[in-house]
Design goal:
Shape: globular
Strand content: 25-35%
Radius of gyration: 15 Å
Number of helices: 3
Number of strands: 5
Strand order of the largest sheet: 4-3-2-1-5
Structural class: alpha+beta
Largest sheet: 5 strands, antiparallel
Length: about 130
């Protein structure tokens, strides 16, 4: 099956809006439900994919600084919960309109889901 050219163009347009200096460990805010903001941490990147950790925290505005030590993914029992590892196409992540706020090293614990994804060469959202 041939790729959809419209989808390819839209994906290219979104992806070019990503910050050029985006790197592993960057913490970004993305618009969320109800005018709030969610927090994501970039775990790993390559030419086509951005692997993120989505935290359960929601904010009414983007703070200047975030204490990353208090972030958690939570559990499915929480009203809002995060996702430990989410592989996204660069275009899909760009469509989330990320705003980079700071950088924190990526820990081995945070990479656990990414390492599992690597074993069978898992898929990508978007």
């Amino acid at each position: 099956m041939w790729p959809n050219p419209i989808k390819s163009i839209i994906g290219w347009w979104w992806a070019r809006g990503l910050p050029a200096d985006l790197r592993d460990g960057d913490i970004c805010f993305v618009p969320s439900d109800g005018g709030r903001y969610s927090v994501v941490k970039i775990l790993a990147t390559d030419e086509t994919t951005i692997h993120v950790r989505l935290y359960k925290s929601r904010f009414s505005e983007v703070p200047r600084f975030l204490n990353a030590a208090v972030l958690s993914v939570g559990t499915i029992q929480d009203e809002h919960h995060g996702i430990g590892h989410l592989p996204l196409s660069r275009a899909t992540f760009a469509s989330w309109l990320p705003t980079k706020v700071q950088h924190e090293p990526v820990t081995e614990e945070e990479l656990e889901g990414y390492r599992i994804w690597q074993e069978p060469q898992g898929g990508v959202w978007g």
